[in-house]
Amino acid sequence: MPIMERKIVPDSIVYSDCWKGYNVLDVSDFKHFRINHSELFADRQNHINGIENFWNQAKRHMRKFNGVPKAHFGLFLKECEWRFNTSDPSKKLTQIKQWVKRHLR
């Protein structure tokens, strides 16, 4: 909860599913809405499939390393974000080449 309070701007909207562990979010400075998958899977933009997909891919990728050092977790997560948001392999390769050229100068 302290991490969320530091990262989430007051009066923001947070979506979650109906897991009882999320009940603590109801007493926060942000608006908490639950999506009940058994009643309503997605209502316009209000679904959590994207974030669930991201975490699934991130966990699968990080599993290869048999644990990630706490000090470097943010960097590993940033790599997972980049992999998730850049799905086209040719774009990934182009971007990596640009980074290498920029840092080898």
Descriptive account of the structure:
The model has no long low-confidence stretch (mean pLDDT 81). It is built from four helices and two strands; from the N terminus they run H-E-E-H-H-H. The chain is mostly helical and 105 residues long. The radius of gyration is 18 Å and the shape is elongated. Helix 2 packs across helix 3. The protein has a two-stranded parallel ribbon.
Broad structural category: mainly alpha
Report the biggest beta sheet as strand number plus sense, adding barrel if it closes.
2 strands, parallel
- Residue share in β-strands: 5-15%
Contiguous runs where pLDDT drops below 50 for at least 5 residues: none
Radius of gyration, in angstroms, nearest whole number: 18 Å
Strand elements, count: 2
Give the overall pLDDT as a whole number: 81
Give the proportion of residues in helices.
Answer: 40-55%
- The H-and-E topology, N to C, reads as HEEHHH
Distance between the termini: 44 Å
Using the alpha-carbon principal axes, give the shape.
Answer: elongated
Quaternary status of these chains? single chain
What strand order characterises the main sheet? 1-2
Q: Total helix count?
A: 4
Q: Could you say how many structural domains there are in total?
A: 2
Provide a compact summary of the structure:
The chain is mainly α. 47% of the residues lie in helices and 8% in strands. The chain has 4 helices and 2 strands; from the N terminus they run αββααα.
